[in-house]
What we know:
Elements: H1 3-21, E1 25-28, H2 29-37, E2 47-52, H3 56-65, E3 69-70, E4 79-84, E5 87-96, E6 102-104
Parallel strand pairs: 2-5
Antiparallel strand pairs: 1-2, 3-4, 4-5, 5-6
Helix pairs in contact: 1-3
Amino acid sequence: MGRADRQLRLIAEAMEIAGALGVAVWLRGGWAMDFFLGKITRDHEDIDWFAWADDAGALAEGLLLHGYQPVPGPPPELQLDFAKDSLDNSFTLLDRDTAGRVVVAGGPWAGAPWPEKPYLNRT
């Protein structure tokens, strides 16, 4: 099984884990573009995700219970990094400011607004 097939299997698994927890996650980056286009356009180094910061603890616990291992990286209030079967998954954490705008959840850019795009207006 090639890397893309293994990554697709992990994407489905992560969606199942998040769904069972009631946690919203969605793809970003290259895999998001490939799903939008309906075809695999290139080899992907990793799987990039968005998740809400309020759900980070539950998401991390769920991933750990399914064999994902934490990977050191950016500040955990900014991004959660996990690996399974030698494949990396990065969950960038989002928050909302008092006006309801989507912002960076933590780290040095905490509170900085994300660009207004349709894929960020999910609940």
